[in-house]
Amino acid sequence: MLAEVILKIAGQFQEQEDHNYYPRPSMAGKERCTRQMVYHGLNYPHEPLAGRAVMIFSDSSFHEDLTADWIRKSAFQLHSEQMKIKCTMPGFSFNLDGSIDGIVTDLLMEDYLWEHKAINHFSWQKYADGALPLDNISQCCIYLRGLHSDNPNIKKAVLLMKNKNTAAYLEFIISYDYDTDTAIVEKLTQSNGETKEINEIMPDAVRSCFEKFAYVNDCIKNKTLPKRDYFIGDDWHCEYCAYGKTCWEGYKKEFTELKTDTMLPDEVETMLKYYKELGGQKSDIEKEYKDLSGKIKDTMKEIGAREGKAGSYIVKLSLVEANRIDKEKLTPMEIEKATVKSISERLYVSEPKIKT
Description:
Layout: H1 3-16, H2 34-41, H3 51-58, H4 60-72, E1 77-79, E2 84-87, E3 96-99, E4 102-105, E5 111-119, H5 121-128, H6 134-147, E6 156-163, E7 169-177, E8 182-190, E9 195-202, H7 207-222, H8 236-239, H9 244-248, H10 251-256, H11 266-303, E10 307-310, E11 313-316, H12 332-338
Parallel strand pairs: 5-6
Antiparallel strand pairs: 1-4, 2-3, 4-5, 6-7, 7-8, 8-9, 10-11
Helix pairs in contact: 1-3, 2-7
């Protein structure tokens, strides 16, 4: 009754909340696709997000409110929530305006910018394993630079990331030097108390964001499209992009127009040689792996066992059911309706035949 309706309503409200493009801190990082930003700025038509995706994005603000309530119950002080900031950079005619999530004051009365993100488990685990949330770090640096005029003593940010699946937290401590425009991602702390020193230095932390927006602004002004930052067959960015269909619509024609008689850089020859060697090893290893698997299974079946132990190893046989679609039972129209087409690029490496 309600399960069918809620996501449809979310999809309808998403269309009402569309806004015009303008440079803002949340879009400033290296991972945001510049081509997507230009499409947005040129008001290209886009696919609306599915209702489920809208729900996932919208509930982040509720997680932020929940986290803020718990902070208020602690000895830390949380204040200046949603305070407006204006970030400027010499040499650029535009500003980056935004609203901070808040400022946290610790027990020693030191102030930190507080930025909260609620993310899915897979993204959370990626950052826990060592990847850096570059877009979020850039956003924090922009806010720290914007706060400098009001309070130059705030030089650090707490980027708090909540796992929406498990309610676990990650905390990145980021310092920013206003004069040199240098950021340092100092350390990562998990909610279980585990801490890891990072000390990753990021020069031109905010200037690089302004340069990106200036480039996008020029593309919008000249109505030109930059190269794609991602590829639809390899990256999730394209799969979830609202401009995906528009962006890749004419790619087959683009592909046929690419040059076919090109001298590549010398270092590519070394890569190609190694690529061929790996390909040969992969085929041999896969064949040996498959043969060995068959021998082990045959031995167990001869003994009449589906579980066993050999030295320090435990081996089990299990039945795995797989579903497949029998196209013989479907009409051509049904098959066509259920077929999802996608494109990908495949690399072939060969050596020219020597003429005798």
